[in-house]
Amino acid sequence: xxxxxxxxxxxxxxxxxxxxxxxxxxxxxxxxxxxxxxxxxxxxxxxxxxxxxxxxxxxxxxxxxxxxxxxxxxxxxxxxxxxxxxxxxxxxxxxxxxxxxxxxxxxxxxxxxxxxxxxxxxxxxxxxxxxxxxxxxxxxxxxxxxxxxxxxxxxxxxxxxxxxxxxxxxxxxxxxxxxxxxxxxxxxxx
Length: 190
Fold this sequence. Notes:
elongated, mainly alpha
């Protein structure tokens, strides 16, 4: 299995794809050093890496949701009274679905280790496979919603920055507001 070069990783425009390539290299190196290399064929090893990436990607997307929420709150604090549009419900719905699916997968994986019955093991493996498929689909939907949200926040920030830095509107406070603020500071210090 081939590794990605540093250039192939660092020059890709998508942050998530760069993370996937780094993760790929890490996993390939781990597998090549382990006994798993001899137990499985290349197709099975690719499945192991893909499954591991699916779980890692879901965790990264959950972190990104928190970052976008922080960006939203920061913009609201900086530009008082002019709020960016609220985040679409799809982000919170998909994040919640991703969290539930990750929980179900981890729980099912733990249960799988203790199952001895072939029939029950097959059922659990199928259920885990279905959860993984749902996780991939939901993670992709979350990623698309996050990209859309990030673009709208950047657009809002750009629009607001232009308004605040417009030559005709260089003063953030009017003269009356400045005088009122100066008076209140003066009287509070007395």
